[in-house]
Amino acid sequence: MMLDVQVRDPIEMAADTDMLILVDAADNEVGSLSKSVCHDGGGVLHRAFSLLIFNGRGELLVQQRAASKRLWPRYWSNSCCSHPRRSESIAGATARRLREELGLSCPLQFLYKFQYQVSYKAAGSENELCSVFIGATDQTPRIDHSEIAAWRWISPERLSEELRTQGGETFTPWFRLEWERVWRDHREAVLGLRTQVLK
After folding, report:
1. pTM reported for the whole predicted model
2. Tens-place pLDDT, residues 28-43
3. Could you confirm whether 80 is annotated as catalytic?
4. 188: pLDDT strictly greater than 80
5. How many CA atoms lie within 13 A of 187 on its CB side?
6. Catalytic: which of 38, 80, 126, 128?
7. For residue 170, what pLDDT is reported?
8. What residues pair up with 47 in beta bridges, in sequence order?
9. What's the CA angle centered on 79, arms 188 and 102, to 5 degrees?
């Protein structure tokens, strides 16, 4: 009998001990819990963020999650997503993870927050109050291979087509939710990023 055993990266396993910030639906802090426990079962609501980074041509940087990821391994997703650690601000956490995962730095613009909960097979769940930010740079990413299997720049039009035809088969559920809202409600802000890069 073949067993579907997922081999996890030691660095990611160590990160599972990070203490994340538990919140209520209004984003008030209510405690802290390890990253691993936050994602067990149906998940415990915690603070998170998603970054969408564009270049001067208006293309979005998307990443394919590493095979060692506990949840949605090898799925394509937004440029960077993570969590602030206990006692860490969102601003500090977004700058840290952008640098650690992608080797990038750029100004970030807050768009909105949303809450979602979704499970991945029997491996665990995301249960997050997620702040969405956009930014722009023409720097070349220097990826952390323990987090990211691959990356690419993609035009909004091509991305929307891939999401329509491939959807849940290749993209993470939170990214599908984010992109629909970003491109529908915040398109002007996204298109305005091009001028920031070209200055």
Report:
1. 0.89
2. 999 999 999 999 999 9
3. no
4. yes
5. 8
6. 128
7. 95
8. 129
9. 130
- If DSSP states are collapsed to H, E and C, what string results for the chain? CCCCCCCCCHHHHHHCCCEEEEECCCCCEEEEEEHHHHCCCCCCCEEEEEEEEECCCCCEEEEEECCCCCCCCCCEECCEEECCECCCCHHHHHHHHHHHHHCCCCCEEEEEEEEEEEEECCCEEEEEEEEEEEEECCCCCCCCCCCEEEEEEECHHHHHHHHHHCHHHCECHHHHHHHHHHHHHCHHHHHHHHHHHHC
pLDDT of 118 higher than 70: yes
Catalytic residue among 80, 81, 106, 130: 81
Output the CATH code of domain 18-198: 3.90.79.10
Active site residue 12: no
**In 10 A of CB 26, how many CB atoms?**
7
